[in-house]
Amino acid sequence: MKSSRFIWGAIGLTASISTIVFAVGFAYAANQIWFPKASGDLQLATPAPTKPSIIESSSKLQIVALGDSLTAGTGDNTGKGYVGRVREKLEKASGKPVFVLNNLAIPGYKSDQLLADLALKKTQDALAQADIILLTIGGNDIFAGGDGLFKGDNQTEFNPEAAEKRVDPALAKMEKIISTIDQANPKATLLYIGLYHPFLDLDPSRQGSLTVQRWNNGVFKLTNQYPQMLIVPTYDLFEQNLIKYLSSADHFHPNGDGYERIADRIVQILK
């Protein structure tokens, strides 16, 4: 009898201990589920190191500008254009000296003319010294000085078909331009200033906007292959208040306020 009582007592004690252990384990597990704590050995994702901007990494900044009348500053009564304004704004933002080494832009230039200039030693030498390269090209290829762009009795209705057919040939040349600039200086930051629609007020169907967007998208695909190249969108800067920011002299180029907006956008991107 004593032996039986001992056995049953041992069994009861073991059961009690098992129950307690089970309850403690269950409580611990539930606590981990309901109130999880990070393990001391758990390694959270480490943010990727941020690359310093060109403003932060350089003791001075040297700009070379290329392209057409937009980079030349046509339409701006002050003569600064967006290039001069970028220089001033960058110098103020960085507290470092900023120089425009060369502004090689020529009004009226098309992509084939710029491509020819890029083969010249003086252009290659200028690009090799640049920290920042500013570029506009393509507007004259697509809009062609108004050739074939207007129809109707008074020639005031925008004709998007004339511009549309010029996009692909110009993009083929643009691909060569981008590649040539990269070969001349693969370290400089290149900013291509995208096109806007200067005849939007004469284009009620807004078909020309699609052509401009197709051009900008095409250039983006080209520059996206190079990590140091960026496209600067400008379409939105002119879309809502086109006349306010265009030169009254030609209804094509920005005025001083238009160039100011472009310069602000460029400096914002460079920061």
Descriptive overview:
It is a single chain. 52% of the residues lie in helices and 11% in strands. By secondary structure, the chain is of the alpha/beta class. The strands form 2 sheets. Strands 2-1-3-6-7 form a 5-stranded parallel β-sheet, sandwiched between helices. A two-stranded antiparallel sheet has the order 4-5. A hairpin with a 5-residue loop joins strand 4 (150-151) and strand 5. Helix 4 (81-94) packs across helix 13. The N and C termini lie far apart (91 Å). Residues 38-44 have low confidence and may be disordered.
Largest sheet: 5 strands, parallel
Residue share in helix: 40-55%
What is the tally of beta strands? Answer: 7
* Number of separate helices: 13
- Based on CA atoms alone, the radius of gyration comes out at 32 Å
Strand order of the largest sheet: 2-1-3-6-7
User: How far do the termini sit from each other?
Assistant: 91 Å
Given the C-alpha coordinates, what overall shape results?
globular
